[in-house]
């Protein structure tokens, strides 16, 4: 297991219930077991203006996850995020030790 920072930008057009459902789904992708200590830590940055338009959106809702992931699962996680229309962008970065 390695530590990663996962930044996700969601569409701002989502209502609070839909956003919390989607955040829970992303958090589930980043969880490798059922233990409470293994769940990713969420740091909500909130709604911010984008540096450039993405799919005709000028603002996004940012959340930073700190998670411990198996490197072999990264392709599956990226594929899930790529095919979710409500996610504008994502970035997965390995933390230095």
Description:
- It contains 2 helices and 4 strands; from the N terminus they run βαββαβ.
- The two termini are 12 Å apart.
- The chain has one domain (2-94): 2-Layer Sandwich (Alpha-Beta Plaits).
- The chain has helices at residues 16-29, 74-82; strands at residues 2-11, 41-54, 57-69, 87-94.
- With 97 residues, it is an alpha+beta fold.
- The chain has a 4-stranded antiparallel sheet, covered by helices on one side.
- The mean pLDDT is 89.
- The longest helix is centred in the first third of the chain and has 14 residues, at 16-29.
Task: Outline the fold blueprint.
Blueprint lengths: L1 E10 L4 H14 L11 E14 L2 E13 L4 H9 L4 E8 L3
Antiparallel strand pairs: 1-3, 1-4, 2-3
Q: Give me the CATH architecture, please.
A: 2-Layer Sandwich
Would you list the SSEs in sequence order as H and E? EHEEHE
Uncertain segments: none
- The secondary-structure class comes to alpha+beta
The CATH topology corresponds to Alpha-Beta Plaits
Cα end-to-end separation: 12 Å
The top-level CATH class is: Alpha Beta
* Average pLDDT metric: 89
Main pleated-sheet profile:
4 strands, antiparallel
Helix content: 10-25%
> Cα-atom Rg, whole angstroms?
13 Å
| Total count of helical runs of at least 4 residues | 2
CATH superfamily: Ribosomal protein S6/Translation elongation factor EF1B
The rough form would be described as globular
Strand content: over 45%
The strands making up the biggest β-sheet line up spatially as 2-3-1-4
Number of domains: 1
Q: How many beta-strand elements?
A: 4
């Amino acid at each position: 297991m390695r530590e990663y920072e996962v930044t996700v930008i969601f569409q701002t057009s989502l209502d609070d219930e839909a956003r919390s459902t989607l955040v829970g789904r992303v958090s589930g992708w980043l969880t490798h077991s059922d233990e409470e200590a293994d769940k990713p830590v969420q740091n909500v940055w909130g709604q911010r203006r984008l540096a450039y338009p993405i799919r005709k959106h000028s603002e996004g809702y940012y959340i930073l996850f700190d998670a411990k992931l198996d490197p072999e699962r990264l392709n599956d996680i990226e594929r899930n995020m790529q095919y979710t229309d409500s996610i504008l962008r994502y970035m997965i970065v390995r933390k230095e030790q």
